Protein: Glycoside hydrolase family 3 protein
Organism: Pseudoflavonifractor intestinihominis
Amino acid sequence: MEQSKAKKPLSKGAKIGIGVAIAVVVLLAAVLVYAFVITNSGYWFLSKFKADTPEQQMSYTSASDTSRTIADEGFVLMQNNEDLMPLATSAESKTKVNVFGMRAVQLVYNAGGSAASVVDKCVRLEDAMAEGNYELNPDLLNLYYNYYKTGKASIAPTEAPGNSSASEFITEPSNITVPDVPGEILTDTSLYDDGRSILDHAYDYSDVAMIFVGRGGSEVFDFTPSLLQLSEDEASMVDAVCSKFDKVILVLNTANAMELDFLRDYPQIKSVLWIGYPGEAGIHSLVRILSGEVNPSGRLADTWLVDNLATPAANNYLQLESDGTWNANSYHYTNAPDDAGYFTQYSEGIYVGYKYFETRNDTDESYDYDSEVMFPFGSGLSYTTFDKDIMAINEDSGVITVRVEVTNTGDVAGKDVLEIYYNPPYTGAIEKSTVNLVAFKKTNLIEPGATEYYSIEFNVEDMASYDYTTNKAWTLEAGDYIISLRNNSHDVVDQETWSLADDIIYNDANDGKRSCDLVSVTNLFDDAMGPDDFLTREWNQDSRAFTGPKEEDFTASQAVLDAINGCSIPTDAELGLTEADLPAVGVTLDTPIMLSDMKGVAKDDPKWDEFVSQLTLDEMALLSGNGAWHIEGLERLGVPFTRTPDGSVCVGASTYSGAIMGTDAAGITYPCPVVTASSWNEDIAYMMGTSAGSEAQVNGYAGWYAPAMDTHRTAFNGRNFEYYSEDSLLAGTIASNVVRGATDKGVISFVKHFALNERESNDRNQLFSWCNEQAMREIYLKPFEMAIKEGGSLGVMSSFNYIGTEWAGANSTLLTDLLRDEWGFEGLVITDAHVYPYMDTIAMSYAGGDLSLDAVGAWAPFDSHAGQLLDAAKNPDTQIGMTRNLFRASKNILYAVCQTWAVE
């Protein structure tokens, strides 16, 4: 028998090779587990290579149509001297037009930050103009293409640059402005062999010039006054163009109101068209308005000023340096740590936007309105004219009906906006603007010579003012209320008087609550008032509203210093909680209740508590603590993994959120919210909401961090593009209809940023906001209130700033007393990006917050906020209170998820 051979031992190199191979396999397995089991990043990566489904393609087409409809009605013709517009085209040949301004080839379609979107598919101006039977001067296009790429003047043929603005999640705000071709290049004679300038050749091409001026925007950015003026290059360009052309159209590609006083120096600029940020397909509307295919009907959502510093709020916004920049440490408490403790005072009170300028004009004989206001709030022109008047005003059972007759007296069909304002009696006991928007209506398309009749209703109580000093309640003072129909906040068309014999005080001690209130309203935010010399009609130029903070305001109180240092968490003993207060968790039912079983079950039904009791403490902590762009799923109870992307201009994933959600899907870029508000059309707003909701469905999203509805307190906020208006009624009406549309599609709208979040600078460094309750309730809270009560929002996102001495995300007065107890909110409250040290997760939970947007902990939640919540629920000192908090938060979260399309 042959002896078996001994196995030869492996060489050292072979052992190393096997070890490396095993390590590679283990590493690859770990990567796959991390990418597809622990996180969703692998699914996100794979989704980049998936073709759109037919449903997605159909949704894209429908959303593009919606985008154009919003722009058709939202773009505003601000000026049209000598009826320069429309520029009609002919069937025989294309109409030639010159375009000037770098924004003509680098339009701002959307701005940056969390609302950014990929804009490379947005329609370019030259393509839309060509489709609209216009021909643009190719030499000018090449000039701008080359100058954008190289910074040098050349008319040599070259490829157009791609769309570049707002294509990142968070970027440096480098695209706020772009270098423009200065006037000296336009008048230079070296670009042509014949010794004539490009302006000379342009005039030969066409006697019409279109100038484009635009500004970007971004999160974590505030405009300086100079950035909202023409730059030196833009000013020289405008001057050069106007020296050659007498037919000039100015197109404003900006969401923030710019200073347009230069228009008074250039009568050559006959027409001014504002387009905001047009989004993916909205630029087609510019062309249709230019040609007259669409008759413009938009109205301004803000007051446009000669000098943006003229608004009283500007004096308390940021500190202006001598070089025109903002002080980086504006309004920092001198006794606070260097990197924390900033403040902002809303010292103007209710006198925001037109409410200041119109009231000042009506009550101060020395005031020169025209020297400060360039275009009033609500302004906008049409290619036709309308006669309108109030036929009658009737009041029945607390409802006022204004009957309006409208006749199209021009030659083309068009839509008008019926703006109803009121002027209440003023005794000095409660501050009141002389001009207050109370109702509005967009008309139908009215044919030339046709007359239509409209009934516009509002409640008597809608004219109440909030008295935070004496009655501490909504109050209607006796006297004459002048109800006016206006073309804008300044131009009265017709008016009538409605009289009230006796005061009405809306509280339990007097006349009962308002019909829109669940409970009688009284002061909640006395602690957030700060210095109490708010602006009054005495127009005291020494007040904080006009001077900014006083020297003593820069010293933080002990309460502020304590807040900077953090908050204390109450123990169960301090709260008086006993074992009897501990809710049951981790209960095993004979027949498990699935989330789908809860469809249609009212939130106050005991079955909800029974359902939530099935969750373990770990599951509750994960559900509440790990909420970055998603809501955790729970397969055993039929709870879906719910994706909740950012907004407010697109429903889609960014690089970071996509990796967490496990998808790269994105809808179109809509015109920015200011454009939607400028339509003054509730139906358009609802259409936008349903369109966004439909896109969310086909892309697998059941939530949307939008709409944003803070106030255009000044023109300087870099996020004004995300917000709607300076006026709370207009903002609230439009926003609530967007919310209602998305909600009807089964999508949670997380309305944001709640609240008093009207500035970006240092708002992530413990910014303390001080405001009186009248201004809070009449202006800053009202859009949110309408979104909850009328829009049915099931989501709210709290803000970064403090209200008084409590961070908004851990402010129980805001999140519980107001939002839930007073407004009846039934959904969930999420924090803004929960990445800053002062944002205390445990305090959030005790205050009524439900979900942490833990952008960092999303990859290892129990090492972050979910773990903090779980530890607090296991701590003997806080076990009962935190378990109750997690039970409540889980119920709020799952109730909202249950209302979405994701749960059948």
Q: What stands out?
A: The mean pLDDT is 94.
